[in-house]
Input
Amino acid sequence: MKKLGLIFCIFGLFAVSSFAQQEVNNGFEEIKQHDVLIYPNPMMGEQFTVKSSSAISKVEVVNVIGKVIKRVENNDLALKEIPVVIGKQKRGLYLVKVSFDDNKTVIKKLLVK
Output
């Protein structure tokens, strides 16, 4: 009898698990994806370009200790490609935070050589 109860308990866990997985997958399908491309990456000059499939509202470049190096705000929400001039920066890894008009953000890595 104990074995039968254990089998039903395990079966119930699998059924709940698959239901929860289905709910999670359905939730992700509703989220609008924003594709972001940063080029050239690695960057050797003083400028790079951020390109997206969606209109970009703001771009921030942050160093590894959290200091904002550059902030570019876009007033023309039709733009999907923005050049960002950060000047001469030390070699290393920087984070590029791209914000969109729907309050979503994407963070990408930028390597400066």
Residues 1-31 form one domain. The mean pLDDT is 79.
